Amino acid sequence: MDINYKVTVNNTTSYNSKASEANEIDAVEITPSQFHVLKASQPYTAEIVSSDFLAKTYGVKVNGNLYNVSIATPLDSLIKEMGFEVGASKQVNVIKAPMPGLILEMSVSVGQEVKENDCLLILEAMKMENSFLSPRAGIIKSISAKKGDAVEKGQLLIEFE
């Protein structure tokens, strides 16, 4: 089965390439990152100067000219069409009460820098104490509740910068 790849050069030029087309290129490895390439009787000197394997992006110097190249598989394209990005994560900027309850302890203050998994507050709900840990590192922008406050489900409690 021949896989189609979408190759983008310098974020401007895109073209589709089949895996079988790689067999048409005669490349000799000079060093692990340098190659002598012969394509359609034209010689080229190619060097891989940078690579991000997870993002599938590469800095390639061909005959002294630097090109930024990204390669996408059919799966990468499908994921992007669905509105997702490979390796992307959603950043949480607010903490809301998941249920009605009573604030037993507020462990942070406005302007405080917190690390991921630092305790932010303790909410008592249905006779149980629920600790809220920071979902990310950041700085506390605002606090909308204080110790002793009764809060409703969905009420904003803490906002990050």
UniProtKB/TrEMBL annotation:
The keyword Lyase does not apply. Keywords: Biotin. Pfam families: Biotin_lipoyl. InterPro entries: Biotin_Carboxyl_Carrier/Decarb, Biotin_lipoyl, Single_hybrid_motif. Residues 83-161 form the Lipoyl-binding domain. This is Acetyl-CoA carboxylase biotin carboxyl carrier protein subunit.
